[in-house]
Amino acid sequence: RGIDDWSILPNPNDYPLLQTELPDGSVNESGSTGEEIDFTDNEFLLHGFETSSPTVTMTDDFSTDNYTHLNSNTSVSGGKLLYAQAAADNRAYRSITEVQSTFIIEWETVLGTANSGHRYHNLVLSEENTNVKTTSSNDGYTIVIDGKSGSVSSVHIQEIYSGTVNQAGAVIEGLSQSATHYFRFSRSGNVLTVESFSDSARTVSEGSGSLTLASTSSGFVFLQHGTENPSTTVSGVTIDNLKIYNGVSDLTWAKNTMTTWI
Fold first, then answer.
1. Confidence of residue 258 (pLDDT cuts 50, 70, 90)
2. The pLDDT value given to residue 33
């Protein structure tokens, strides 16, 4: 429909200087069917936000295999990465764009069966493709899954640097070993945070926790999943729909503000 006149003001305080009064009822122009909204005084303010989602640095739906596999207990099959642990260093790793000092990683996982005290790395960011637990030169961040009795597991965050392990207590407790969990792992400032959700939209939290970093390690260019301790036994782990967002701390933010006077 036609509009007689309008102004877009970058600053609402300029309104008295640029005001253009429209004739009353000008929205209903001649020949209209009358369905238009009629503002009696033709004064209408739009003030809002244009939102945008950040760009994904890396995404993997595991429809193809982009990993190198050590030993025989990791594979990509059926659109998922599969992992089990039995008396060897069973890991899958791949190179990635260097993770920045602020990031968000999301993925979905079935934690798998692990007896009490049996642990593995569900996800690792590392400098090298070696095992961060046993290689002192390989610094990294890890999400550790720790089996508990009653078919549940707990979640730990670890920072490993120069052979030293910085770990808080279990940050999430009591996650089902057989259900699918939707993880979000992030760094903002000097704090690592992990949260688990029960739904793919990540609206129903199952718990979260954080770890304050003790080092300034960087240069993480490998992504890994698998063995922490080769003597443990784990089975039935799956990883799927993994996304890395580099340089962001929030997945939706206000990009531009807009104020429009009509």
1. very low
2. 57
Find out whether 153 and 146 touch, Cβ atoms under 8 Å. Answer: yes
Please give the helix or strand (H or E) that residue 258 lies within, else none: strand 253-261
Separation between Cα atoms, residue 262 and residue 260, nearest integer Å: 6
pLDDT at position 46 over 60: no
- pLDDT of 30 reads 56
Strands 222-227 and 119-126: antiparallel
**Using CA atoms, how far apart are residues 152 and 117, in angstroms rounded to an integer?**
11
- By CB atoms closer than 10 A (0-12, 13-18, 19+), residue 31 is exposed
Question: Judging by beta carbons within 10 Å of its beta carbon (0-12, 13-18, 19+), is residue 147 exposed, middle or buried?
Answer: buried
Residue range 3-25: mean pLDDT, rounded? 50
